Amino acid sequence: TGAQNYTYAVYSRIYNVPDGYDKTLLCHRIEQEYKIGPLELNCEAVIKTSTDLLTNKTIHTDNNGYQMQKRLFKSYVNNTVARNYYPMVRTAYIEDGATRLIMLSDRAHGVSSQENGQMEVMLHRRLWNNFIWDLNYNLTLNDTSVVKPVIWLMLGSKHVTTALCQKSGLALEHRPVVTFGQ
């Protein structure tokens, strides 16, 4: 019954970017565009991406759009999931010895790696609660808006994805706007 009152949609596009000097594919990019909201009360919209990368629940996030910081998963007595979410201004990635999965976004999100080889992004949330464990912080976020974030996923070698990350991030932030006049 409640699912009829809110909207969620995912649009995916697959790109091959760009060809190498010998016409070999350097990297695959998947564009995912979401439409979420309005959410029911006390709901969070999260997208999880799982891989076979051996990451040890480690994720790297950007602090300011440029500097990357390694974030190690930590177990806590209370609220382990929320305490392992970190801000992502534009970029987050997981990696193993040879391969990296980069996530670029057109807006800031919270990200986490709760499982080995997995990355999750908080796309939207609507909360109305004030539990005892919240240490008197009011967690109310009664947001009834509809959000439309765009995320690019790039999978490739560390060398190639590092070279493409900044340029792709700028391309995502500054996509062309098409207008028609009379």
Structural class: mainly beta
Strand arrangement within the widest β-sheet reads 1-2-11-8-7-4-5
Apparent shape: globular
Q: How many alpha or pi helices?
A: 2
Mean pLDDT: 84
End-to-end Cα distance: 45 Å
The counted number of beta strands is 11
Beta-strand percentage range = 35-45%
The Cα radius of gyration reads 18 Å
State the low-pLDDT regions, or none: none
Largest beta-sheet details: 7 strands, antiparallel
SSE topology:
Elements: E1 7-19, E2 25-37, E3 43-50, E4 59-62, E5 68-71, H1 80-83, E6 86-88, E7 91-95, E8 99-105, E9 109-112, E10 118-126, E11 150-157, H2 158-173
Antiparallel strand pairs: 1-2, 2-11, 3-10, 4-5, 4-7, 6-9, 7-8, 8-11, 9-10
Structure, explained:
With 182 residues, the chain is mostly beta strands. It is 11% helix and 43% strand. The protein has two helices and eleven strands; from the N terminus they run βββββαββββββα. It has helices at residues 80-83, 158-173, and strands at residues 7-19, 25-37, 43-50, 59-62, 68-71, 86-88, 91-95, 99-105, 109-112, 118-126, 150-157. A seven-stranded antiparallel sheet has the order 1-2-11-8-7-4-5, with helices on one face. A four-stranded antiparallel sheet has the order 3-10-9-6, with no helix packed on it. Strand 4 (59-62) and strand 5 form a beta hairpin. The longest helix has 16 residues, at 158-173. The radius of gyration is 18 Å and the shape is globular. It starts with 6 loop residues before the first strand and ends in a 9-residue tail after the last helix.
